[in-house]
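WARN retry 2 of 3 for item q-0093 after timeout on previous attempt; input resubmitted unchanged.
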Amino acid sequence: MIQSEIKKLICYGLERNLFTKRDELYITNALISALGLDEFDCEEAYANVDLESTLSAILDYAVQKGIIEDNITERDLFDTKLMGLMMPRPSEVEARFFELYKVSPETATDYYHNLSRDSDYIRTYRIAKDVKWVSPTEYGDLDITINLSKPEKSLKEIMAAKNAPQSGYPKCLLCKECEGYAGRLNFPARQNHRLIPVRLTDEDWFMQYSPYVYYNEHCILLNGNHTPMLVNRKAFTKLFDFVKMFPHYFIGSNAGLPIVGGSILSHDHFQGGRYTFAMEKAPIEKDIVFKGFEDVKAGLVKWPMSVIRLSADSAERVIDCADKIFTAWQGYTDESVFIFAETDGEPHNAATPIARMRDGKYEMDLVLRNNITTEEHPLGVYHPHAQWHHIKKENIGLIEVMGLAVLPARLKDEMATLSKAMLEGSDIRAIESIEKHADWADEIKAKYDDINEGNIDKILKDEIAIVFGHVLEDAGVYKRDSQGQAAFMKFINYVNEV
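OK item q-0093 returned
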């Protein structure tokens, strides 16, 4: 049986152009060696091979033969090794990418994205488990994702990873040294991972796709050196350098400070892709003019967070204008609306920039951020407030800023339990797993005249989206009331004065 499963894997690789017929014997021998076999004899030909079931059968064999332990960590390490054996060398991928780039940037990224999926670097069968929907709100249609694609590890695996020897290689998950790395108990395998080199300003960067795919063609740009996140004029230039190379993609950066930044601040990186978020669709609700930049169309965006949109024929003019705004923002304090540039020497003001092409013009959304904390809001004043933590407690990074909520896996089961309890009239406060949702459930019941089995799923999904809208409002430094908007314009006037 193992020989037929190996042959299925070989047929899959040929079918997906991971290698050519000329390489079949070489790769067959590499696979049987990895599985401790001395010979191979299977002449069957297989079409439309299901990769997940094929790998699962091979992994079961590896467990049976004592090659690996039967847990998620070792199974993932081993199946990545097997897929890596079928992969083209990085130089071959790079050469093919830039050959196709001559046809068009889209042709090149289509090839690279398909390779990242076919190689199982993006585990599409796990991504399919994520719960995703779109709900209408006053800010447009917000995207909601309950992330289920990261497998849950057992306590034994967690402890094994904790006790495993520590290594400084690679330094983090975004380092170029991950390409082809075999992994270990506390670091994922990356033998099926390939990078595409890109030059941003005068620096070597690399493009890859995210293995977790929060949106279409979710890519990551990573600095070739392990250097901390830094948002400045040069970062704005890098964003537009990328957009010039790949005008069908947007690209953005997390803020460079804790709380308002991403999950990895130690390695400079951007995220982009081929997707139109609600924030991009949001209109300008107030036109503004920056002195000396009359050729740059500017405005405040109708969005729960504080967004300045800039657009011009010249990328340099947008960069110059964004730099002036950001430089002013870094040192700006307005105590009347609790905005402090720094306290006790610790800087608080930051920005999340997003660059794109729109209708032939260079466009940037500059989202103003602040990471100050207080006793009342120890996780951040401009962070999801405690009343929303039953849905979303985690930091608001680039992806959320643009209008996509990445919610914890626990919500899938909690919403199923809550739905049943609400339909049956159960005491939600007496059910430990959903007690945290009780006040919210009371508000929902008071809002809708008829909640039944046919509509409760949509109601809960729409109400989660509304909560996400409130979370983004909390993250906005200028609130959407008259005081907040007046203070926003006060800052715009300050920019024009300095």
